[in-house]
Amino acid sequence: MECDILIRGGEVIDPSQGLRGVRDVAIRGGKILSIEESLPDAEPTNTVDARGLYVVPGLIDLHVHVYRGHSPFGLEPDPLCPAGGVTTMLDAGTAGSYNFGGFRRDVIDKAETQILGLVNLSCMGLVAANLGELRDRRYADPQGVINTIREHPDVAVGVKIRAGRHIIGEGEQGWENFREAVIAARESNTWLMVHIGESPMPIPEMLDHMEPGDCITHCFKGGGERILEPGGRVFPAVREAAQRGVIFDVGHGFGSFEWDVVEAALQQDFEPTTISTDLHTKNLHGPVYDMPTTMSKFLLMGVPLTRVIEMSTTRPAAVLHRENELGTLREGTIADVAILQPHTGRFVFTDSYRKERIGETLLTAACTIRRGEMVPGGGGLRMRHLAD
Ligand SMILES: [Zn+2]
């Protein structure tokens, strides 16, 4: 059996098939050709020795910023792919209706890595870190969002609003912006991602307007507005929203991940739906680094490996309504594969509030295969703070 790549002897973890075990994986023509306990007759052009490594579907990062040059947050997308095992990334509203066409032309269409985008309610997108994009209501452009999604249905998959008071304004102005984002999502038949910041609207009240498939990102942020009541209990409205299908996404970021919140939520059996990084220029070199580091933080918090993989592959694929082709290693699907290396030691992990915890497992991307091709470069153990 001729094939392009044979991944030999790795521990395959594919939640989409309920599969965990040592397997050989053959890839041909950009697709998964075969997964078997052993493929001795394979005649591969390239072989990856994955013994001792995890072979999982290409990671899907549901929250990044990759409109480089346009936004002070924008990263170059392609280097993030081999470094983080990420084969599909969702840009969370760096562009709005005025510049999504430029984002597509200059970034999405040029990148090798699959990029999808949410369209910001603000027509100019996320251009300035110092002044919120919806502080002036005249920037809100729900009809522009709808038109943009109609014009780019293959890559513009939903709507984004950053609902912090320094971004959308106080009181009624905040609500007007929020309502328009909801309308844009409904009328474009897509979904809404809400960044919860120090929001002028209480989270339970925003959830009243959110439907299954809509998403709260930064779900484990600390600060004044959080998914927990003042006493530390998960808001009943949050739990109820998760049960009816609202997505709770990690979106770690520079200011949106607090150990104590994660711990309290997990102790109450409240897990995130999806793990994502919110990678941008200001957190790439810590505390976020990449997807595998963010995933390792959930291992530290006691979430089983298989579920951590599911939250980073199968589930985000479902959020994107692409579970038939992404987030899976089923035969015949796109050959996006992340080969992750578990390192054992004492690693310092830092949350967004500069609090450190020591974890004993650090995942890194040893090899990334994108649409059936090995991506040059790779992660491995890069600069890390090692514990004493
Ligand atoms: Zn973000």
Description of the structure:
Strands 1, 2, 3, 4, 5, 13, 14 and 15 form an 8-stranded mixed sheet that branches. The chain has a 7-stranded parallel sheet with strand order 6-7-8-9-10-11-12. The protein is 24% helix and 30% strand. 56% of the residues are buried. It has a domain of 262 residues: Metal-dependent hydrolases (TIM Barrel, Alpha-Beta Barrel), CATH 3.20.20. The longest helix has 17 residues. It is built from 11 helices and 15 strands. The termini are far apart. About 2% of the residues have low confidence. By secondary structure, the chain is of the alpha/beta class. Bound molecules: zinc ion (ZN). Zinc ion binds next to loops. The site of zinc ion has 5 residues, from loops.
